Amino acid sequence: MATRRNPTARQVRLGTELRRMRDTAGLKATQAAALLGTTSAQMSQIESGIAGVSEDRLRRMAAHYSCTDGELIDALVAMAADRTRGWWEKYRGLLPVSFLDLAELEYHATFRHNVEFLYIPGLLQTEDYARAIFSYRVPELHYGELELRVHHRIDRRVVIEGPDPVPYKAVIHESALRIRVGDRAAARAQLRHVLELSEADHVTVRVIPFDLDGFAGAASAMTYVGGPVPKLDTALRDTPHGTAFIDAEAQLGALRTLFRKVEAVSLEPERSRDFIHRLVKEL
Fold first, then answer.
1. DSSP character string of 209-276
2. pTM of the full predicted structure?
3. Contact 221, 214 (CB under 8 A)
4. Cα(9)–Cα(99) distance, rounded to whole angstroms?
5. 81-107 as b/e: b if 16+ CB within 10 A
6. Does residue 109 contact residue 160 with C-beta atoms inside 8 Å?
7. Most CB within 10 Å of its CB: which of 29, 190, 197, 254?
8. Digits of tens for pLDDT over the chain (283 positions)?
9. Which residues of 1-29 are buried (b: 16+ CB within 10 A; e: fewer)?
């Protein structure tokens, strides 16, 4: 298959999983290449996402690596065969690649979880709220790029507002609900938007109030995106250098546990809606 200059995060993830499968089998790249009748250079390209891999070759690799996880193999085959060019492609070359990778990740998600302490989660943001956030960036964005980022964020909402939405859970701290990212009117509209979306059967919004005793989880902010099988889940966490995509199984397991702990201490959905209703009346 032809090589790619700029593989997407999804293509890189496929290669990463094939490398992990080989490592688990205790084989070096040269040994795996010999079993498949290819070169070490091509193995490196496949495992870095630079080159694609056919279903036949992928299944041969899994057999040589003694992988018996049929669901994982089928999921990897589906990833290898995917040729989706989604709505995010219109932003290619206009926005940072990470924006497109996130949209593609969400498009293929089986569920999505958010924990936020300072901002309303991106999928729940109104246009005014998103614009206020991007307007605060230093150095400032010129008008055209700012609007592109706002429109991209609003387009992302299709995963929970479109015709085939995914199950979505958001745990939001009271601080994020109270901080006026925009003006009073924008804050009121934002809270009402969260309430409106929380009424959907596939959306669950829970609140962590300020007066919760013994809560030490303020560093638990995360985005957790479900894959077709748990091994293909992905977590995202903000870092000083941008958003980090996390796919190591041990880290994913820790973040799943962390989400359950934060969710367990938050208010039930109905009480959370009542809480947000009160905040709206205060504005």
1. -TT-TT---TT--EEEEE-SSGGG-EEEEEETTEEEEE--HHHHHHHHHHHHHHHHHSPPHHHHHHHH
2. 0.94
3. no
4. 11
5. eeeeeeebeebeeebeeebbbbbbbbb
6. no
7. 190
8. 567 778 999 999 999 999 999 999 999 999 999 999 999 999 999 999 999 999 999 999 999 999 999 999 999 999 999 988 899 999 999 999 999 999 999 999 999 999 999 999 999 999 999 999 999 998 999 999 999 999 999 999 999 999 999 999 999 999 999 999 999 999 999 999 999 999 999 999 999 999 999 999 999 999 999 999 999 999 999 876 778 899 999 999 999 999 999 999 999 999 999 999 999 999 9
9. eeeeeebbbbbbbbbbbbbbbbeeeebeb
Which H or E element spans position 10?
helix 9-25
Asked if residues 95 and 148 have their Cβ atoms less than 8 Å apart, the reply is: yes
Distance in angstroms (rounded) separating the CA atoms of residues 263 and 270: 14
- Alpha carbon distance 263, 63 (integer Å): 40
Tokens 């979880």 appear where? 113
Residue 110's nearest CA partner among 171, 167, 160 is 167
For the chain, give the number of residues: 283
Which residues does 117 contact at the CB level (< 8 Å), separation at least 6? 173, 175, 176, 218, 220, 221
Q: Residue 63 carries which side chain, given as an amino acid letter?
A: A
Number of DSSP helices (H) and strands (E) in the chain, helices first: 13, 6
Q: Report yes or no: 65 and 31 within 8 Å, Cβ to Cβ.
A: no
Beta strands in the chain, from DSSP E residues, in sequence order: 111-116, 168-173, 203-208, 222-226, 234-239, 242-246
Phi, psi (deg, nearest 5) at residue 74: -60, -40
Residues 243, 262: Cα–Cα separation, whole Å: 21
Query: Distance (Å, rounded) from C-alpha 47 to C-alpha 39?
Result: 12
- Rounded Cα–Cα distance for residues 279 and 267 (Å): 15
